[in-house]
Amino acid sequence: MEKIHSLTGMMDLISSKADKEDLSNKVFLTEKLLKNIFENFSISEIRTPALEDTNLFKRSVGDTSDIVNKELYSFLDKNEKSITLRPEGTASVIRSLIEKKIDGDTHKLWYLGPMWRYERPQKGRYRQFYQAGVEMLGYEEGISEFEMISIICAINRELRIENPVIKINHLGSNETKKNFCDALIKYLKPMKSDLGEKDIARLEKNPLRILDTKDPNTQKILEKAPKISNFLPESSIKMLNEIKDTFSKDCEINIDYSLVRGLDYYTGFVFEAVSSNLGAQDAYLGGGRYDGLCKQLGGKELPAIGMAMGIERLALLSNAVEQTKSSISFIIISSTIAANAYKIAHDLRSLNNKINIDVQLSEGSLKSKMRRANKDNADYAVIIGEDELESGDVIVKSLSDQNSEQLNMKLNDLRDFISNLK
Ligand code: HAM
């Protein structure tokens, strides 16, 4: 029979006890640490569906973005309605607030889940990937910009990320954006034929995105192009400098006037966190202010700022290590005593919820079970056979110290031993 494979760019994550450096393990640990950071910042969780009306993304992420143009996973459902696997989380959060009629309040929300983009897979770029995001809603420009960068610094610290750089920019008001785009078009139009193919299309539809070009010809032409910094009000430049001053002791912060981001909804402060350790796909986090999105989707005027981070990219960068708990491999020598031996394991588990007790479920020799316990990096093996059950003793063997003697313990002593483990 023909084998069934996972789809291109979509991977299985399977945690491994034996290999702590395995990407799946790192992904799960990253998620745990991120949730902790979000809690520390007093941010609440939101979960939205993975499937949404396709129009939600067309109207928010934007018709001219790469995401909507060519990367959406869109299908017709049984009712011939176009639905899309979410490529990002911000639009769904806003849709949810509008629907629940809570778009006039303030909210600090985080989410974590799979997103889908039909991209060309490579290291750090997948078609199904996991993102965590934070959205601060109902807050005008000001303190929340600082809060965003503070969260990024906490992520860099807790995940022990090497060589992080935060790039920041300000896109100004709609008026600033328009004046700058007019000047950019005026400068680029006479050289249109020298631009990259993608950039020619962007010139008509979304000239700001040309600043994000990967085309060397366009990059050369852009060297002498008007700069957004010349169009920004003094207050925006001041904010960029203040943010740089505040956080420079924690992380390298670069003001990058060509940073524009790939989604259409951004309005003011924008940022990206990158690390040279990632290779070509160097951004592990990105975000910015999007004050116009809620109104644009049919809700109230709602100032907002947010960011999202790629979990796999963070996991690739993370040097964090799991806080180790003591682990016991519980070995029942023969299935004939399963019920009575299992009672002991069940009882031990209720004594200490800070340790792991792994009851070996498969049949096999003591030798193979000890091999399993060692492979799983257990700290101790607790071994129970018929003789032990009869005498009320169990065998305890330390696996971290291979030279240690195995001990015979009375059940009550074992209970004390387990209760005191950390
Ligand atoms: P984004 O820059 O499109 O922003 O994605 C955020 C992060 O998701 C990226 O920096 C990257 O780490 C990760 N990512 C994106 N595409 C892929 C992929 N194909 N494979 C692996 N990782 C990927 C947003 O999604 C906005 N919603 C962020 C935001 C929230 N802005 C305001 N609020």
From TrEMBL:
SUPFAM superfamilies given in the database record: Class II aaRS ABD-related, Class II aaRS and biotin synthetases
CDD domains according to UniProt: HisRS-like_core
Catalytically driven reaction(s): tRNA(His) + L-histidine + ATP = L-histidyl-tRNA(His) + AMP + diphosphate + H(+)
UniProt cross-references to Gene3D superfamilies, sorted A to Z: Anticodon-binding domain (3.40.50.800), Bira Bifunctional Protein, Domain 2 (3.30.930.10)
Taxonomic superkingdom: Bacteria
Record-linked InterPro entries: aa-tRNA-synth_II, aa-tRNA-synth_II/BPL/LPL, Anticodon-bd, Anticodon-bd_dom_sf, His-tRNA-ligase, HisRS-like_core, HisRS/HisZ
Any single GO CC term annotated in Swiss-Prot or TrEMBL for this entry: cytoplasm
Location in or out of the cell: Cytoplasm
E.C. number(s) listed in UniProt: 6.1.1.21
Pfam families reported for this sequence: HGTP_anticodon (PF03129), tRNA-synt_His (PF13393)
GO terms, molecular function: ATP binding; histidine-tRNA ligase activity
Domain Aminoacyl-transfer RNA synthetases class-II family profile: 31-317
GO biological process: histidyl-tRNA aminoacylation
Keyword set includes Oxidoreductase: no
Keywords: Aminoacyl-tRNA synthetase, ATP-binding, Cytoplasm, Ligase, Nucleotide-binding, Protein biosynthesis
Subunit composition and interactions: Homodimer.
Family: Belongs to the class-II aminoacyl-tRNA synthetase family.
HAMAP family according to UniProt: His_tRNA_synth
Protein name per Swiss-Prot or TrEMBL: Histidine--tRNA ligase
Originating species: SAR86 cluster bacterium
